Amino acid sequence: MAEEEYTYPMRINKYLALKKISTRRGADELIANKKVFINGRLAVLGSKISQADKVEVKGAPEKAYEYFAYNKPIGIETNSPRPDLFPIGRLDKNSHGLLILTNDGRITDQLLNPKYFHEKEYVVRTLNKLRSSFKNKMEAGVNIEGYVTQKCKVKILSPFTFKIILTEGKKHQIRRMCSALFQEVADLKRERIMNIKLGNLKDGGLREIKGEELVLFLMSEDSPCSIFYTGI
User: What pTM did the predictor assign?
Assistant: First the structure.
């Protein structure tokens, strides 16, 4: 995003996140540790800047952090097409769709810690016709080997296809939920993680996450309900 496209005045923590210097939470820590200066003066939590202000960060990481949307094809294990990037979470070999790739190890624990939750959206096609009670039973929670899944959102797209939005991620969860309701999965595609959408990204393709899309993704770390654990 070009400098003139930024919306000013802007909170300093959002500005630092936009510049990929840190996450918004990390920016607050830099400010609290007296590492951030605006026009030569120490910044305080909640400070706002204008386009003309000069921002300096002492001890800012030199590494340029990168974030990408990746469309994992069917038939391969979770991987990264670039050796300098690693996937956050996974998709099983027979599933395909969106993975987030990054070189930012700072966010890994928060994004993978199972005590946090966040929305993930999938489109699923079944081998057999969906039963009339399928939507209500999936949304209410399904007992999978002694564990009752949390409530979710389901939209029926056709007699054999549905969309599901989860806020948790037990291993092979969607396949196990379907199996418990006597439905067999023929195809499972992840289309969204938080605010990041797969869109028209081709199989094996990469798309850089940047600008406001990146800001929203990084800022969501401040909300425990927005953090995710993948393993479906």
Answer: 0.70
